[in-house]
Structure formats: C-alpha cells, structure tokens
Amino acid sequence: MRAIVSIATTTVGEAIRRRVLLIILLIGVLFLAVAPGLGVLSARSETTVLRGMMLGVIQLTSAVIAIVLTVYMLPNEIERRTIYTILSKPVMRWQFLIGKYLGSILALGLMMLLMTAVMVFFFWWQQNRDFSAVPDLLKAPVMYFIQMSLLAAVAVFFSTFVAPLVNFFLSGGLYLLGSLFNPFFQTLQESQQTPPVAKAFAWVINTALPNFANYNIQNPIINPGQTIANEGAYYFQVTVYGVLYIGILLVAGIWVFDRREV
Amino acid sequence: MNMKNNTSALKPILIGVAAACFAGQAFLQSQFIFPKWKQDFSPGRGKMVANGLSPDQMLFALTGFREMVAGILWVRADSFFDSGNYDAILPIIRLVTILDPRQIDVYATGMWHIGYNFTDEEQRSDRRYIPSALALGKEGCRSNPETYEMFFETGWMWYHKIDDDYSNAVKWFEEAQKRPDMLPARKNLLSNAYERNGQVDKSLDTLFSLYDSARKTFGEDKSVFGNRQNRDTLERKLDTTLVRMGQRGWFASKEGRPLTGYDVNPPFDVNFSCKVSVVDRRVLKFEGTWGVKPVGTRIRAVLKDADYPNAEPAGMLWDSSNDVNLDPPRDKTFMQEQLFVKNTRFNKKVDMSKDPTMYPFSGDKYVLELYYNARSAPPHIQDKFGWNGEGMTDKNWLNTEIRPGQRVIYATLPITKDMILRRGEWRDKVPVVKTSNFKEDTSKSYNSGDSFVIDLPALRSDDRKQ
Amino acid sequence: MAAAIETKQLTKSYKSRIQGNISVVDSLDLVVEEGEIFGFLGPNGAGKTTTIKMLLGIIYPTSGEGYILGKEIGDMDVHKLISYLPERPYYYDYMTGPELLKFYGSLFGINDTARFDSLLERVNLHRDKDKPISKYSKGMMQRIGLAQSLLNDPKLLFLDEPTSGFDPIARREIRDLILSFRDEGRTVFVTSHELEEVERICDRVCIINRGKIVRQGRLSELLKGTRTEIEILGSSVPAVITNIQGVTTRPLADGFLLDVPEIVSVNDVVDATRGAGVTITKIEPRKLRLEDLYEQAVGNNPGPIGDPGLKKTITVEEETTA
After folding, report:
1. Where are the domains of chain B?
2. B residues 6-35 near C, CB within 8 Å?
3. Contact at CB, A208 and B34, closer than 8 angstroms
4. ipTM (interface pTM)
C-alpha cells in the first residue's frame, strides 16, 4: 500500500508539470471563460447555450487530458528507465501499475476540479451572482470524473502492450464508440427495420464494451425543469459500474504487464 | 515470497475477480443503467429521433458533446438571423433539434421562423412552409411532452397563422393546459380558441373556471399586481362574452325565445362579387364588392396550383406530415392575401413578379379562391354574422359544405399559367377572370374601393336593412 | 564463502522472424562471491544488461536458474537487500535530491531525514539539497543514483557503467566510493567498458560475448603472465612475422608494435625480425593487462547478439581458487 501511495504521489507530481497537459488545461479554461460570451450571443437560449458549452468543454478537455496523460505513462517510465530503479526495489509490478493509475486519476481530478471551479465562477457571475443553479450543475463534472477514470483505465490497459500512438487512437476510438453506443443501440432497438440478429449483436456490444454514455447526464441539467425519479440510485449504479469496469481493466492490465519484458 | 510465483498463484483469483466484475457490469448495464439512461438522460427521452430518422443519421450526431455542439450551432444561427440569411437557418434548426431535442427554445424559434419569416417583397408569408412548421412543432411536443410550451406554440400556429381550422388550435391548447407548468396568462387563449371554434359554451365555462382561479389567487396575495390584473382581465372578458352571447342570440336560441333585431337574423346578404385582372406579368388586381359597410372585413384570396398536393378549399392540409421536411414543394405556387374592404368595395394589387422563387408558376393550371369565414371576423362584425356565419348569406356564393357546421363565402376562378405570365394569346390583352355576378363600377364617387374616404354607417341607420 | 549471485545455465532467448530463436544470454553459469567487487564485461550487445535485468527480476529467464543472496531471483525479500544503479539513469527531474531519496526510501518504508542527509553528504551532494534534479550535471546524477542505491543499506549493489563518460576526477571519486562499499562488506556487481577502472577495483571478472561467458575468474589469476612489446621500423610487417601465431601487430607513427604473448618465444620473433632485415627499436616486457585479456577473449568477433558471424569458439577458462 505504501509503495502504491508513493508511486501515485510521484505520478501526480510529474503529471501536473507536464507542459502538454498544462497547455490543454489552459485551452479548456480559456474556452470556459469565453463561454458566457457565446451564451449572450444567443438571445432566448442564453443559459442553455452556456451550460451546454461549459459542460461540453469540461468533458472534451478532460477526455483529451485523460488520454494524453495515460498513453505515455508506462512507455515513458520504460524508455527513461525510471521503472528499473523502482522495480528493483521491493515493489511488485501490480503495485507499480495501480500506483501509476491512481496517480493519473488523481492528477486528472485536480485538473477537472480547476475547470469546474472556473465554470462555477463564470456561471455564477453570469447568473447575476445567483448560486441556486450551481449544485445541479456540479452533478455533471462528478459523473465526468468517473467517466474519465474509466477512460484512463482503458488507456492504462492498452499501454501495457501497445505503443503510445496506437494507444491514443485505440483509447480515443473506444471512447467515441462507448459514447456513441447507448443512443445508437437505442435507435436500433426502437427501429422496426433492424433485423433481430443486428439487435442481438448490438446488445452484446452495448453490454460488453465500456459504456461512456452512461455518464452523459448533462441533458436535464442543460434543459432543466425535468423530473427524474431515483436520480441518486442511477448515479450510484453508474459509479458501481465504473468501479467494476475499472477493476476488469486493471486486472487485465496487471496480467499483461506482469508478463511484459521491460 | 517470490514475486512471479505470487502473481501466478493469484491468477485464478484474478480471473475470478475479473469475470465477476464483468458479469456485474453487464448485468447493471443491461438491466438498470441503459433503460434508465434511455428514459431520463438521453436527449430524446425515450424517443431519440424523430420518426423515420435512420441510424446512420444518428451516427452523424456527436455523442457526449451533442448539447455543446447544438449550442454552438444555435449561436451561429443567431448571426444568420441578424444578417437576414433565413435559408441558412433551416438546416441549423434541423441539426440542433436532432442533436438536442430537449432544447425547446430551438423548436419554438424554429417554428416561428419557418412560419413567419419567409415572405415575399410585400410581406406575404410563404405558406408552403407551414406544414413543416407544424411538423417541427409536433416533433417538439413528442420530444418534450412534460412541458406546455411546444403544445402552446403549435396551437398558436393554428390559431394565429393558419387562422382557419380552430378545432386544431383548441386541441393543442387543451394539451398545453394539461401540463402543470403552463403560465396562467396563457390559459386565457384556450377560451378564445373555443370561441373562434364556435364552442361558445366551452369558452364560457373556461372563462368562468379561469376567473374563479384568478379570484382565488388574487385573494391569496393581493399585493401582486399581476394577480389583480389577471382577475380584472378575465372579468372583463367574461362580461364581454356574455353580452355578445346575448347580442348574438345564443341564449335566446338555447332557451327557445324569439330572436331580437340586434341579433343575427335575418342573415345579411353580403353581395360578394370579384374580378381578377392580370394587369401585368405576375401582377394580379383584385376588385370586387362586399356589401358590409362597417370596416373590418378581410376576404382571403388564394392562388395555387390546380393540382397542389394535399389541397383543401381555400388552403391545404396544413397538418399533412409528421416528418420534419424543411424543403417545401418548390415547384408549386401558393399565394394567400387578405383583401381589405372599404366602402363596400375592395381593390388590391398583388405583385408576384419580384419573387419568382416563391411563385415559380411551373404548372399550367391554377385556381383562384375567394373565401370568407365569419369565425375570423372581428367582434363587431361577428355581432351580426354570428360565430358560424348564421347572420351572413350570399345568394351566389354561400357555401355550407367546405367547412362543416359553418356558413362561409367561397368562390373559385380558374386561371392559367399563360394568363398569369401574359404570354401566348395573352401577350397583348389583359386576362380577366370574374365571378358571374360581377358588375363594373362606373361611378367615380367616394364610395368606390379606391377612395381614401371611408363611409361609416350610423349605428341604428336604416342602412342596416339592405 | 557464500555466493551473492549464482546462476546455473541461465538463458534468455527471443524469437526472431529471420533468425528463429536467438539466445541473448546463453547458459550462463555465473558465480559472484559475497564481499567482492565483481566486474561483468563484454562488448555492446553481449548480454550484460539483459543478465542484470534477469537477476533483478525485471525480465524473466527463458530457462535456467538464478539465485541472489541464496534466494531465487524475483524474491521480494531479496529486493530489500539489493540495489541497482542503471546506466544513464533518469529520475523525476522536478524533485530535489532529498525528495528523490524520500521517494525511494518510501518504497522501502524508510522515512529517515537524517539518513537521507548523511547519504547526500557521503556522495558530496549535501550542498545542493535545494537544487532540482533537472539542474544536475551528469556527475551529480550519478552521485544521487549512488545515494539512492545505498538507501536500504544493501548487501549487494548492481552498478551498470558507473563511471561511463566521466572526467578522471569524477571517476576517481566514484571508484573510491565503490571500494568503500567493499570495505563495508557489501558485494558490488559492476559492468563497465572502462577496463582500466575494472582492473583497479575488481576482485573477479567475467567476460561475456554473444551471450556466453568466455572468461571468468579472479583477476590476479587471469592476468598472470607477461607479454613483450617489440617496436620496429618500416612501412609494413614482413610475412615471416605475421605468420607467427599469437603475435599481434599495431601500427605506430614510423613503424609497428609487435605484441608477443607469453606462450610465444620472444627470441623466435626477434630472430625472424632481424632475419627479415627489419630494424628493432625497442623490446619491452610487460604484465598482462585486462585489455589484453579482453581482446583475447572477445577477439575479432565482438559481434552483436544473434550475429551468426562468430567463427572462432573461445573456450571458457574456469577459475581454480585456492
């Protein structure tokens, strides 16, 4: 445990100093600062546009950060040989992998926290210093954090056996696919023209692949006034889902990494 | 403890853990999460797409960022509004409503834009778009069933823009009323719609109900000016309606009493006649008679292809489609104008030459329709004509069939493309079509339709009897 | 004395599409005794780093056995007693020296600031405590590496090219440190290309080439014997001299240097030289150097792993200890 915590802490320290991540974060923050201006440009839909834009920026920026942060994590350690000085100590490979993963999501969480703070500030300012809508708004970043933790786990798993560039596209592609599949699956389910075989296949994929769309809960926040029954239960379920899937990916990653020649 | 052996020993446990996690997530996803997401968090709320939207069109929409993209697009649309590039707005409206069907504002603005903004140089609406506007409204209702707004907007389109089939306005306003978030001030419109639809008793019942509610609200908080205003408005409306109902013989006929001289009997012969001259290429001059001296009559003139799809008398099947198709029948022509009557005459030039896109005149045969319905008349005219045209007649053009339960004035005049475009045999002569009873007005008195002087009849003048 | 490191037929093979199975390390039988400084030599690509990685449990052998301090390689308990300084190490450059030691210390469960300070003093970095590692010179990097390798008071240290690329003063400092490790009773396993340094500090050496051990034993034993250097004038070496087996030649500014091993008669070479009419300018006997041994062992075929060009099989001479 101690080794995991140390490795995680070091990973955070490294991550928050990586220039490319800081640049992506800065771009995200700038977009958030600009968002109220866009909202004003759309009379009648000002708050809708503002919410949609801000939450979208946070989600998009976080996804890019999550992928860029994790695809290079293991390969960098191997290339720079820092992994040797660690694995030569009484640190097991799985401890190293878990430590790196936890450190990466902690760093990601800090960056998302910063963006959320910026969002809350500008939203509060634009809403004439009214704080009442803010708690509702905060649900989305929390769900996005779990979503990005899942994405980070995907990238960490792939990083145990593919090169960073391939990993970038694999993880990004899986994220798009996993975000696309809920609505796509829904459409297939409801369409009369879809053959049963295709529906069954879609069901398998929807069940097997990591489903990122579950965390896209922003619609009722962007278009408020909707009543959602058992909202808390849903958030709990998707959190458990995320933890389970992250568990699968980390176990698989440990398995692969354990056999990997470094 | 050897590292390798330790991991090897744990491998069956790890496999078991991974398998259990996989089964757990699959169960959660399929049984709980996906159905709940579909119901509450999918932008379509159970109906992801409009009817008929295919999966590949869905794929086009970006997923987790759809609301953000929708927002950006809508901001872009705003700039097109400012610059007047109305055609460019249409695809954005469609895309935004696909991306986020929960954005009610886009539906409402889109409907209004489609229904009202496409006009010719003389500000006549392009009515070919109205079915699309209605289809958009209906889709907005399906996507947002829990709020009143889209139902209200759709009803308004029927009530104000189409201004003919009020039963549909009633239907949509009733739906809007059922939603708990309906604004109190807007509820009054349902009573208006009932009245326009000839359901006077329902209008009255609605007014009484609204009045009781307004009085109760006012009683609870007298300090709010809006509460007082709402109560007073409804009270006035109630008074007026009751007076009108009496005036128009509604109570008398219900109770079997004889009708008095202030009511709708005997029906007044409006003596309608009309001549349409093609004074220039694509320019029509409407002139004619309408025997009603009080100002306020607007006769509807419609020019459309003889084979216009889904045509109905003096209009079309406005509610012809549930699919949102922002592309109207561009090869068809539909012109609708209101002919204002002054001094028992009307005289109006309709110039369609500046808008060839809106009036393509691709076909060979057209029909001119002249139409008047007392349901759309202002109150002082309705005082005579009644809600269903009981107080109105015309020996030549009264029609009781095209609008069941109503007495309307309706005349049709066939006209051809060659006549409208003044070509062929019509190159050098003025095409004229007219009703059989039309007589030229040779008098140059101020009583002609051209005059700026309007002759107002006395309130109890003998002129009432024609 | 117990062996600090012992391998039996330790082998590491990789599959190559062109050449099939390549043995990067081939049937290594290595013995390193406790308390000695052991030099592990070989040309680039000989399999040195691969061997170290196997011993550290970073990679897994294809076959054979390996033991560190009596326990099988990969044993976590052993990792508490060993340390490793890689060649060209890289550390988290935002950290300072003390922070780095604290990090590595935490992996052992050590959080002793006084200890970290004393280690920094030992490697002469105590004056640069606040400097981030990104600003360290190469020598400082190596020294902080040595400091981290001493954190757990190891019994066995693996040092991969510890003096590579350093100036003579820095090399001496590191050399003195390594010697002090031995004085403290630690075992040091060193790889290096600096044969002079190895000759100065190592007790025993092993030379590998193409994954196989070609020499292993105590230096004093391996370097027994002498060689004779004969300088001659001329623009070429007569065939009668080059035909003498074991004699190697090296060009000089105005002639050649003939290197005559002990097994060859110096008189025969002198006679042949004079017989060929070549002028001899100097005859000098000298001790066998590690460089000579290395050259002899690796010969003219210091090829990379998997290179099928090795034509001569060089026998391994087993060390016979007293």
Report:
1. 268-452
2. 6
3. no
4. 0.85
